Amino acid sequence: MKMQNESVQVELKNGTMVQGTILSVSPAMNINLKDVKMTSIDRPATSLEHITIRGNQVRMVLLPDELNLDSILQDPVFKPKSKKKLETTASKAPKRAAPGRSRGF
């Protein structure tokens, strides 16, 4: 993971701000942080060793300004399909029967 060990600030839907270092992020946007400082609206700041935030509770993730987003957002696996491949896959599609003659009756 490219963002591992980066310090981020996460704002939750209930207004709580969580600041910490990324351990992992799941495809469902669940975030695991270490060395956490959690600040709620009506409570004093709390320090935690580790926290897991459920992805559907995240309103916003604030990234550090010095982070190079161009290198992080590049996907080395992504390769656009060529037009030749698209044409050959379309020509290999099975032929359909004429309308009204689907079962041979």
UniProtKB/TrEMBL annotation:
BP GO terms, sorted: RNA processing
Domain Sm: 1-67
Keywords on record: Nucleus, Ribonucleoprotein
Keyword Iron: no
Region of interest (Disordered), residue spans: 78-105
PROSITE patterns found in the cross-reference section: SM
Family matches, as InterPro entries: LSm4/Sm_D1/D3, LSM_dom_sf, Sm, Sm_dom_euk/arc
Main location: nucleus
GO molecular function: RNA binding
Compartment(s) where it occurs, according to its Swiss-Prot or TrEMBL record: Nucleus
Domain of life: Eukaryota
GO CC annotation terms, alphabetical: spliceosomal snRNP complex
PANTHER family (alphabetical): SMALL NUCLEAR RIBONUCLEOPROTEIN SM
Protein name, entry field: Sm domain-containing protein
Lineage of the species this protein comes from: Eukaryota, Fungi, Dikarya, Ascomycota, Saccharomycotina
